Amino acid sequence: MANLKISKNAEEVLKRRYLARDAEGNLIETVEGMFRRVAAAIATADKNYDPQADTAALAEDFYQLISSLKFMPNSPTLMNAGRPLGQLSACFVLPIEDSMEEIFEAVKNAALIHKSGGGTGFSFSRLRQKGATVKSTGGVASGPVSFMRVFNMATEAVKQGGTRRGANMGILRIDHPDIEEFIHCKTDNADITNFNISVGITEAFMAAVAANENYDLIDPKSGNTVGQLNAKEVFDEIVDAAWLNGEPGIIFLDRLNKDNVVPSQGEIESTNPCGEQPLLPYESCNLGSLNLVQMLKKTEDGYQIDYPLLAQTVKLAVHFLDNVIEANVYPLEKIAEVTRLTRKIGLGVMGFADMLLYLDIPYNSGEAEELAEKLMAFIEEEAQQASRMLAQQRGAFPLFEHSIYKDQAPQRNATVTTIAPTGTISIVCGCSSGIEPVFAYVFIRNVMDGTELIEVNPVLLDVLKQRGLYNDHLMKKIAKEGTIANIDEIPEDIRRVFVCAHDISPVDHIKMQAAFQSHTDNAVSKTVNFSSTASCDDVKEVYQLAYQLGCKGVTIYRDGSRDVQVLNIGKVNNGKDNNGKDNNGNVQQGNGVIVPRLRPAITQGFTERVKTGCGNLYITVNFDESGICEVFTSTGKAGGCPSQSEATARLVSVALRSGISVEEIYDQLKGIRCPSTIRQQGMHCTSCPDAIAKVVAKVAEYIRSEHKSSGLTAESQCGLLKDSVNNDNKLKTCPDCGSKLEYEGGCVVCRGCGFSRCG
């Protein structure tokens, strides 16, 4: 560790989420060991092209590349390269065709991807509309939104390789007959929680908006027009919904397909969960980001961009990412096949906001936009040149002759650049995330002994110390304000440059996104931040400007719009009790929806073997200081109905973490009868659900007897995110460490510990 530039905070994030552990959960890897593991695994891929390749030397080059924090691959590569799972991609797109068999095949494939550590994007546009006739059964279709909920529940049930939580992108074309239901399907923040959603907008629709005309709704099965809506009114519905809680975003489908490198393979219909990686069905993309802070050199006149160093770093990073495609253990053979046909990589950047601070350039300035365009043009050209050099050694991507590049010099990778969110890896690298402005310059973290730890942006820290302005009182004032814009103790020239996300107008946010998009093969992940007082017209202005400036999509977040009400243990000051009812026994509604507490990192529990009519059923019940939090089941060799038992266990787990009492669950499940059980003599249970109920009740009784002195009872099962709830019961801070959460690319991330809703 002595020679690594890793901060203490970054080291803790790596220990929590990346470093290898043994079966008992003990760390068996150092940070240096992780970097060497990754470098060696990716370098080995050179043997595929040259059996005599000096992979040891290349591994050392890759090690220096990532350990110096000049470049960092996406999280799955750091977690899984050189380890048994071996799945290195974050982004996948799966097709959903219009039949029950194909829909549930996609559900299964998505589960496999999430289990391996990836996230998935889907277009639901091929599914027939709600109420359409299903000729094979004589019934009627339930529509895309109903199936989104099926995918959502399946994702909830899968833990990503033990280290990452799944996220999805759901997209529906603007001309689908169910588009209005889709636009409003996430009005409730507690609904369809594992999806970001975006409306797929066409050029024809935007023209109809401008002309205030009607547009056609198309039956996806027949291709016939089945109705019309007013384009301006639908656009306003999208704006209103986005103003409410940031959903849906929008993507411009025709623009995605204008840059489709291999149109012969079909249309691009969807992106990955953060909106920045358009992909064909079954494609994946391997991402990595350059740390722009490390591309600076100090001179007598201040800092400058070291373009020769940047070019050298880009070249090695492209080599690294192309090797990732070979080293990857794909979750589906079809994904391996399709990914290798185009060999898409996505080299992006992080630390852009910090770079601007070093260069004394305000983020919300024309100078910053010009630099962004110049910088990304340089990176794109160097990345394409590196890809062409690899093509000379290894050959072009297999579909090159069928691509839009067929008359140009051969290229190894169909795409080379993407601007992705870099939440956790930017924490590892100690820099600002992606191309986002700094969210806040000072954080106050509460540590275990009750003391406060002040964390200050390193660039601001240096400037304040140089000026003799640094003191704890000032830092706490900045943390409370959230910005230095109105801190009189700080000189105006510092305040002019050190702007944070909410000091920047939404228009300037979108201008920066457009500047990077102009030289990015794929798309750009960027959250446009609005103040809580922003109007729907403000959102509409940004959506229209994004279209005018050539962006491929937009994600917005209005401050406070996604605050989630969670459930407290016992009575709280608003009169709600732990079962989601007020003092009159009424169930909470609207903003008072019940949200299950998160599964804790560490639990204890019991496993009991129960004899059923289908063989042995093993039931595991785990609990923490707040009560029972999860139930697992597995079946013995005799088989049985594992899917039914697992479904019951998962629903019981969610119910317990949502405040439903053990008694209520026991009453609902006890005595359920199964023919396989009741026709056998000597059975002590009547079904698998009955067995689960009895074991859960037994563990609850154990907890009561062991913890009477602490007052823990089965009625306090719900628990709560203690450190993440303020007096208004709104989720604003990290459930793991209590730091303030940031919204980025349609997700939330904690810069204190690396927690992320999307992995």
What is the terminal separation in angstroms? Answer: 26 Å
Q: Segments where pLDDT lies below 50 for 5+ residues?
A: 564-592, 708-730
CATH architecture of the largest domain: Alpha-Beta Barrel
What characterizes the major β-sheet? Answer: 10 strands, mixed
Helix content: 25-40%
And the CATH topology of the largest domain?
A: Anaerobic Ribonucleotide-triphosphate Reductase Large Chain
Give the percentage of residues in beta strands.
15-25%
Please give a structural write-up.
It is a single chain. The chain has 759 residues and is of the alpha/beta class. The chain has 3 domains: 451 residues, Anaerobic Ribonucleotide-triphosphate Reductase Large Chain, CATH 3.20.70.20; 58 residues, no CATH class; 113 residues. It is 37% helix and 17% strand. The chain contains 24 helices and 27 strands. The strands form 9 sheets. Strands 1, 2, 3, 8, 9, 12, 15, 18, 21 and 22 form a 10-stranded mixed β-sheet that branches. A 3-stranded antiparallel β-sheet has the order 23-24-25. A hairpin with a 2-residue loop joins β23 and β24. About 7% of the residues have low confidence.
Q: How would you describe this structure in keywords?
A:
single chain; 10-stranded mixed sheet; Anaerobic Ribonucleotide-triphosphate Reductase Large Chain; 759 residues
